[in-house]
């Protein structure tokens, strides 16, 4: 699969070009357009493998219950995909390592990528995020989405990131969630709340905007139906 990111960083979309017989898995509802020869199949997990339990796990992690599988019928067939929220996309190739992906950031992946749910513990509840994040492993390309710009931070020691700005991070990193200031009340009054402290060596991919904060700011201004 060849991945081209178009209209980055504000309104990015991914153009996925495949060889004959090649398949790509994408989040339900993410397809914008595709070649007329592409076949589409919907399932709860990987193509031809079912997996209702794994689909339920993805729902708990904030992803959709169903996945769409696009298969090329000729060399050069393509699919265009994009996320719900405007922002940037990251095309990343896994080479046997594991990536932990924040809820809602998965967009597409090659068939060879394994997806499962990773338990982050009750500490994640207090960060305002999901207790479960996606665990992606194997060898192949993946496409992740961000709200706003996306950028990597190379950690070698310790680094602190607001939890709502995390897109993904290497499994080689350990993390703990704690208050931003000296006191819990002061942390929330300062608008930061709880933060994530990464330790070890690896990469954290961050997004420039926080979807939860955006929703909280815009929600009260929307007229009820």
Describe the protein's architecture and organization.
The chain has 225 residues and is mainly beta. It has one domain: Double-stranded beta-helix (4-Layer Sandwich), CATH 3.60.160.10. Helices cover 10% and strands 48% of the residues. The chain is built from three helices and 15 strands. The protein is globular and about 55 Å long.
Give a quick precis of the structure.
The protein is mainly beta and 225 residues long. Helix content is 10%, strand content 48%.
Count the beta strands: 15
- Which sheet architecture does the biggest sheet show? 11 strands, antiparallel
Report the radius of gyration as a whole number of Å: 18 Å
Q: Give average pLDDT, whole number.
A: 82
Unreliable spans = 48-53, 122-128
- Termini distance? 42 Å
Amount of beta strand? over 45%
Structural class: mainly beta
Indicate the percent of residues in helices.
10-25%
State the helix count: 3
Q: So, CATH architecture?
A: 4-Layer Sandwich
The CATH topology annotation reads as Double-stranded beta-helix
The CATH superfamily turns out to be: Mitochondrial biogenesis AIM24
| Strand/helix succession | EEEEEHEEEEEEEEEHEH
Net shape: globular
Q: Assign the CATH class.
A: Alpha Beta
């Amino acid at each position: 699969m060849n991945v081209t990111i178009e209209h980055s960083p504000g309104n990015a979309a991914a153009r996925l070009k495949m060889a004959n017989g090649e398949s790509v898995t994408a989040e339900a509802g993410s397809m914008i357009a595709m070649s007329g020869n592409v076949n589409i199949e919907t399932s709860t997990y990987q193509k031809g493998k079912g997996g209702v339990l794994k689909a339920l796990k993805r729902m708990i992690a904030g992803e959709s219950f169903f996945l769409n599988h696009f298969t090329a019928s000729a060399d050069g067939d393509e699919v265009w995909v994009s996320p719900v929220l405007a922002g940037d996309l990251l095309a990343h190739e896994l080479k046997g390592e594991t990536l932990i992906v924040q809820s809602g950031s998965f967009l597409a992946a090659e068939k060879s990528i394994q997806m499962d749910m990773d338990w982050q513990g009750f500490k994640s509840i207090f960060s305002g995020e999901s207790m479960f994040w996606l665990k992606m492993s194997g060898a192949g390309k993946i496409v992740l989405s961000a709200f706003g710009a996306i950028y990597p931070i190379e950690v070698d020691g310790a680094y602190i990131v607001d939890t709502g700005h995390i897109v993904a991070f290497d499994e080689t990193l350990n993390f703990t969630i704690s208050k931003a200031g000296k006191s819990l009340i002061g942390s929330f009054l300062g608008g930061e709340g709880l933060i994530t402290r990464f330790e070890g060596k690896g990469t954290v991919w961050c997004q420039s905007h926080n979807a939860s904060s955006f929703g909280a700011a815009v929600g009260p201004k929307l007229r009820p139906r």
